[in-house]
Amino acid sequence: MYYMTAKTYLEVFKLLHTVKQGETLYQISQDYRTPLSVIISANPTINPNIIYPGQTIVIPGFPQPETIPYQIEVSVNNRTLRLLKDGVVQKQYPIAVGSILHGTPVGNFIIINKAPNPGGPFGTMWMSLSKEHYGIHGTNDPSSIGKAVSRGCIRMYNKDVEELASIVPIGTSVIIHP
After folding, report:
1. Residue 8's pLDDT band (cuts 50, 70, 90)
2. Fewest 10 Å CB contacts: which of 6, 18, 78, 158?
3. What's phi and psi for 44, nearest 5 deg?
């Protein structure tokens, strides 16, 4: 049986976030649902009032994506979500994406939490992305799959999002491209 030392735990469960243009430390804390005070404590050498693009910030409590064999790749234009394991496609799912007015964000994110049965239009499963207000979720309108109709989230058939959520752990990398 393998036991993690405290040092190993701290090395594995600290995500490194690279600051993007226009981001603030407050917004980063909101995106990761991590209190600002916790992020400041994990980064004692940074000035919380002055961060810059390219700067690396430790987000405690999340595994480094490199330690997870799974990756999710979303093609907004093709309206597909692919599950990869060790770089090999395991499965491809049809999805719905954001409408013209509410586009799906493009970039690199991680799954930060999962919520079964969130209710309403979110179907039977919600997986939050590390961008506030966005996630991968089921739907109460299966006819929307394959269309650009959401408010920016990635919609899946309920059975598909349940399957995906049962496979991927918190911290899984999600790459969204056009």
Report:
1. very low
2. 6
3. -65, -20
